[in-house]
Amino acid sequence: MSVPGKTTLRLLDKADKQIRKLPQSVKGALYDFQYKFRENPTATGLKFQQLKGHDKLHSARVNADYRALLFHVGDGDYILVGVRKRQHVYDNLDRFRYEVNKVTGALEIFGIVESRDAAEEAPQEGLAKPAPAVEATEPAEPEVKPEPVPEPAPAAEAAEPPSSHGAPLFAAYSAEQLRRLGVAEGLVEEALAVRGESALLELVYGAPAHTEEVLLALADGRGFDEVLEDITAPVTAEGPVDPADFTAALARPSTRVTTSDTGLREVLEDDFSAWKVFLHPTQEKLVRRTYRGPARVSGGPGTGKTIVALHRVKNLVENLPTGRNKAVLLTTYNTNLAADLRLRLRDLAGQTVLDRVDIVNIDSLSRRIVNEGGQGGHGRRPISDSQVTREWRGMLTELGEQRWTAEFLEDEWNQVIVGQGIRTRSEYFRARRAGRGQRISRAQRAEIWQLVERFTMRLEEKGVWTYRQIAQAAARIEGERAAKILENRDREARAGGQFLHRADESSTRLRFRYEHVVVDEAQDLSSADWTLLRATVDQGENDIFLVGDTHQRIYDNRVSLGALGINIRGRSSRLTLSYRTTREILGSALGLLGEEEWDDLDDGTDTLSGYRSVLRGPRPVFRGSRTWAAECDAIVAWAKDLRDNAPHDTAPSIAVAAPTKEEVDAVQYALNRGGVRAASLGREGPPAGFEEAVHVGTLHRFKGLEYQHVTIAAMCEGLVPRAGLERLRASDPTRYAQEVQKARSLMFVAATRARDSLTITWHGDPSPLLPEKAARAEEAEGGAAGPAGTTGPEEEGFEDNGLFKPPNALL
Ligand SMILES: Nc1ncnc2c1ncn2[C@@H]1O[C@H](COP(=O)(O)OP(=O)(O)OP(=O)(O)O)[C@@H](O)[C@H]1O
């Protein structure tokens, strides 16, 4: 790990929050300090010294008032574990511990981060005491360990919160069980004695991250076996653990320190850089692993799938042979998400890495390939999905065709015919229709084929084509190219010599377009898209890496990757720790998914089991109003309140999601009229200049975004799901079920955009997709869901009181 003669300085993850809160001037001094320290830790100005009574702990001078606390791992390796005021360097060091965790093998340093309350009181910028003008006036370094500050006397009985009474929280567990789960040895006894929520939160605040995850999961009611499997097993050390070998421990991904020596600098430069420098061990493994073929990472919202994809791209590029071509494709569904990926990758890896990556959304890639191949549809213009539906309806009306609905035919065409690249009637007769519900006979297939042919001719005559047709054309072009490459390779193997590669007309050597393909939001790509991607990269090591979550599928693309030549069997992993939402929001959002079953992109099922968060916040609010006008008023009041009460004049990020454009326009109008600056979210995000306004958009628009506060409005019966779907219930139950599932996914996506607070509102009767308990409890609170004319405060809501938390939650 350490290079002889070189000093490395990493940052302990738990010290990160404290450092971000330091006054700007101290951060500046720390910035200079880390350079100087790496250069020469013993330079006199740094006053580097071992703390009395602590073999591994040292202090060094950051500026006149502040000292860095440094843990010496061994050789030239150091970890910055805290920054303290000079006179407080020794405070509470009796709680300081370090150990190599016997289960995870991680080097864990804890008890050094000040308590939550102390951290909250950290000096704010501008309040810091000015540094003394003359260095020489600085008092001497603390030479001797001061007397330990006596523990504060326990608060009087009456002042204790009621939750701290009763049995210890983890009374049901033995010390041995906590150890097996990987709770830090030095905290096992303390954990077993802990009573009440605030004491637990205090304990986990400064605890190693793994101990925090385990204890909060147990407190959430997850069983021992579940925690062992979901939280501990993925980070368990692969080989034997030597508790005395700190250097080996530092090299393990389970040790939560900045992944690179420059991570500390990034934290100081950018307050939002945690995702760049602290990967969770399970994320880290996925970034570095070598796969023998296509691999898939799933996981609930906010678990860092995109972050893993970005780090993986960086890692793949860093392992490429030198060159100038764009050897890695990073693709996703939307244009705005592709633009966001570009910004983040540049931020993470810099321009040199970016230069080797083609970042483009999947539709643009198809169009590019089709244009390159000279098959640009002969000037045909792409049309949107809603235009396609209108075209189907128009054609069926003109034909007086009533045997099939426009929706069914459009879906059959998209999913089965275009999706599988079917080009002839006989191919269609043999086509696989898994998951399509309604069975159809051979005679019916013949009817459908005829209608589809008519429809494609109609589009051609109008000079338009759909994005799926473009994807299909691109997949064909790329497929032919791949076949040629393989054929050449085969001939070369038989005949020997490389010249055969040059057998095509252009005499340029034919290659696969990319070395590696990385896909974000994989759940929304169509079969044609996957066929195209398969053909852009050779089969082999690290060829395709995809991340996605089928619970968030909001377009109608259902695929079976195996059938499309992308075999992910045995190479699937799941992320389960949310970095975005609080556990309260997460619990309610899961309640929105109902009891549905979700696929895994490959004929199997996926679950969100183990999905969790260690972040906490207010419980989501569910609120009914009697009228739409009253609901809009309540939304305006909510937004004003958040804006007026934002700390330190910051503009909180606020968003309102609603089912259709009509409600979006109404909410935006109400906000603007109420004096709240609001803008609607377009395909490319908010309009320029409105980044800090309240963003209002249809549920679809929220994919991939993130806000502090979110309201999901108009969650009413008849709107969610659309009343028009009712007729499918009897005529096409499979499709009906798929549409309901999509409506749930849309709500789920919107709910999980919220970082800090979530509100769900409706007027009249609530959507039947809202958990029944929410609506019932709201009625009991005197809200508006009762019979018309009921008196009661319209804007009043209720807090879900943990309705959707696991039934055995201890807190
Ligand atoms: N290791 C990490 N350390 C700190 N923050 C992280 C980490 N991983 C992810 N995050 C943060 O969590 C948030 C969600 O990450 P990301 O967008 O990658 O999740 P996702 O799984 O792709 O979410 P979604 O499925 O909702 O699109 C982001 O703000 C990201 O910066």
TrEMBL record:
Feature: compositional bias, Low complexity: 128-139
Task: Tell me the keywords, alphabetical order.
Answer: ATP-binding, Helicase, Hydrolase, Isomerase, Nucleotide-binding
Q: Which reaction does it catalyse?
A: Couples ATP hydrolysis with the unwinding of duplex DNA by translocating in the 3'-5' direction; ATP + H2O = ADP + phosphate + H(+)
Under Enzyme Commission nomenclature, its number is 5.6.2.4
Keyword Isomerase listed? The answer is yes
Where in this chain does the record put each UvrD-like helicase ATP-binding domain? 278-589
Q: Disordered: where is this region?
A: 121-167, 762-811
| Residues that hold ATP according to the record | G299, G300, P301, G302, T303, G304, K305, T306
Q: What class of enzyme is it?
A: isomerase
Q: Does the keyword ATP-binding apply?
A: yes
Q: Pfam families, per this entry?
A: UvrD-helicase (PF00580), UvrD_C (PF13361)
Q: Which protein are we looking at? A: DNA 3'-5' helicase
Native source species: Nocardiopsis exhalans
Q: What is the lineage of its organism?
A: Bacteria, Bacillati, Actinomycetota, Actinomycetes, Streptosporangiales
